[in-house]
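Crash report, auto-generated. Payload:
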Amino acid sequence: MSTAQAARRSPFRASRVITYALLLIVAVFYLLPIYVMAVTAFKSFSEVSHTTPWQLPSMPTVEAFGNAFATLAPSFFNSVLLVVPATLLSALLGSLNGYVLSKWRFRGADLVFTLLLFGMFIPYQSILLPLVLVLQKIELYGGIPGLILTHVVYGIPITTLIFRNYYAAIPTEVIEAARIDGASVLGIYRHIMFPISMPGFVVVLIWQFTSIWNEFLFAVTLTLPDQWPITVALNGLAGSLLAHYEIQMAGALLAALPPLVIYIVLGRYFIRGLLAGALKG
Amino acid sequence: MAVATPATATRERSLRGRSLGSFSWDRLTPFLLIAPSIILIAIFVYAFIGYTAFVSTTTWYGIVPDYTSAGLTQYTDLFGLPRFQADIQNTVQFTVLFLAGCILLGFGAAVLLDQHVRGTIIFQNIFLFPLAIAFVVTGTVWRWMLNPNFGINLLLDQLHLYFLESPWLADTRTALYGVVIAAVWQMSGFCMAMFLAGLRAIPDELREAARVDGASEGRIFVRVILPLMRPITLSAVIILGHISLKIFDLVVVMTFGGPGFATDMPSLYMWVAVFRQNLYGRGAAIAMVLLLMVALLIVPYLIWSLRQETER
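Recovered output after restart:
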């Protein structure tokens, strides 16, 4: 499309210069915290206490990263131990549910689906007390396994939603044909649906990975200090190293890194998960 | 959202009909596949909410469960507490400002990105990346940027924009605005993505037709484009509104409700009441009030979304 056309199409008839200027201002707003985080993380403690937070480090050092990593490494590892199984399990459950709810719709399936979906919007404060009591009773309170169970259960609504919408686009003829050939419900899933589910799995895996990695309320309520995931440990870091902003920022970068890498590599799948949450796939 | 057309729906019905009559394990398989999830949600969502509702009608205080009935006194007491009154006021003020910020910035960014300029993808990615990182990370960075002695104020000094300086998180009058800024930074990209998808779905013919009728660009924007954004705005208000009512991480990290109760929220007070003060009955009552607020927003939306889906 030519420039003239593009300009004429625009609802504001704004010149491209103004559009660019505004876009740049907005971009600066979004990038400013990242700049601060990166610049500060490479400073030494003595330089951080100066009143020059916006300047580049005069003597860049990775000392803060070393300190942050020394403190956060165990919880980083906890987060990995949490996120990998929780993500895989909830994706598998969501896929099976989505298959049933889109292709084997029973009476009341819509009601069941609505009741499942409500579970993804509730404030978790409303289930937190009984959750703690039950986890204590079954001796899963305080550690990563209990947190895995929690994330798998409360991940059911969103993973089911994404897969249900994904499978709805697959023509029923395919299933009908397999049915005539004598394939079982499970056989159709294993040999037909599962092999073509990869794009759905990518969206769900990325969404769950990011959400669970970033989650804080369950993590801070259900785990004890040596089992803390990274978000809780990062919050603790700020409390124990109050003036050491360089270590806090290095820690924040460390905690943000895995989801950021995924976003940079597979961003469009992430956005699909995001929009699915608004029930507008 | 992709939905089965009426034709495929009938076919599905006939598909099911084929196995009718003869009992087979295969007919049960779909139920068996979905049963674990239904049972888990029934317990972990609905039974748990029921239990919380029950606890909110007891006097339970202290570590040992005490189910002495308190009727609705937990609720009446709650609304008399200055801290909870502050919470409700904060949550409403926060939600209004947060929604306004996200929608204005998100819509503005979406309109700019819809101008078919070079580098659209780069800008889009810059606006969206905060959504991928944790509220705890956002809080950690913004807590520092909104520290009156170190952060943004020094930058404003250098730019000679003194009138924009503020005590931010250090003052009861401005702390809530600080949290709003951080929250808008994190979530406005979500609005941008929704509005951009909406703007791009508007067929060119619609604009052309309006132009042929002699409408100015400004008029087309107000009369054609804006009305088409209404359903998206509603979705955004509801999704972001319920996130706003539930906001917890950001407040914990940035202010822990302070200074005073200037940024305290029901979500945080519930947590403090139950897990710090052992006020189980009161915490449960706060949780139920919070659930009710979210349900008032979400339930009509859920029903509306699913009805729309079946109509299409």
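Post-recovery validation: The longest helix of chain A spans residues 63-103.
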